[in-house]
Amino acid sequence: MTGFREIDGAVAGEHGVDHFGDVFREQRRLASGHALAPLDDRTVIEVAGPERLGWLDSITSQALGRIAPGESTELLVLDPQGRVEHAAGVLDDGSSTWLIADAADADGLATWLQRMKFRTQATVELRPDLALLGFVDGGTAAVRATDAAARPAGTALVWADPWQRVSVGGHQYAVIAEHPGADLAWRVAIVTHEAADALAATLGAEDLAGLLATEALRIAAWRPRWSAEVDERSLPHESDWIRTAVHLDKGCYRGQETVAKVHNLGHPPRRLAALHLDGSDAVLPSPGDPVFAGDDEVGHITSAARHHEDGPIALAILSRRAPVGDLVVRADGGDIAAAQQVIVPADAGSVADIPRLTRLSRRPSAPDPRHAV
User: Fold this and answer.
1) 2-229: what CATH class?
2) Bigger pLDDT: 106 or 251?
3) FRET label pair with 175: which of 161, 165, 201, 360, CA 20 to 30 Å apart?
4) How far apart are CA 309 and CA 121, in angstroms?
5) What CATH number does the domain located at 269-349 have?
């Protein structure tokens, strides 16, 4: 989407346009539904063929066998031990299933899907000819993006992020009356590069938001992402991703045994937390910066941003046994005090609610006289 990079004020970063001049203004405009965000950091994969949905259902964490045209969801690909390997948003239009993946993950996901096809009547194709525009529903940005995504032979391809609520078959570990994700009606329109560049020619910096703004809204909503919150150890439970990306009641798929075991019989070894950082310093931590409780290292930063309302914020993966209180982030510029807000509690999973049988080696205790008949 070269057109957006040429707009006055555009500042390009490693993965796309970071901002268009004023990050906080962009966040406010984006949150209100009046700014579009070119998402050069994501890639589209098209899966076509009559057996595509049943096949994807059988090899991923999400129930896709009966997804309706126009319906949106998301999926994870897990390894045999239940660890997250790939992630993607899912939109079906009745003839193709469109996967939206982080750019760094797209090649790996497409290659894995190709290897898993066997004799399935399905095709897998990376679509570098397509671009992605992010926006929050309800404002002028939705009209512009939907018009750009319109297709001659069908409805516009617009993915609705399911993070606003717990999906059917999902489960939320966060114990909170009002989840911050409920307020983020995030949408992603799939458009041709030609349509994106034509739209860019009609817009100014005041109509746009960069990747720094989209990340700030995502972090504030506690929304996990493959390129940030996933490492070689990640289980979906740890970042509350079962909320929208895992169907706990569907049939067998790779990694399902671990998903069920951790959910029903144990606790995830790590947990995602939201951090409100001391804003008196200009330093913002980087992904990978260690988090300490006293002298003990208890985790690391996965994402950080400056939010237009909340100030400096971050997501961190912590040890399950990390204390719930205030923490310290050790960044290059010095230590940063961090107030912790629990997302995934230490007792996530159902182990505390499952009655345990008395061990056979134990002698039965005397009956409680209060229960005597």
Assistant:
1) alpha beta
2) 106
3) 161
4) 49
5) 2.40.30.110
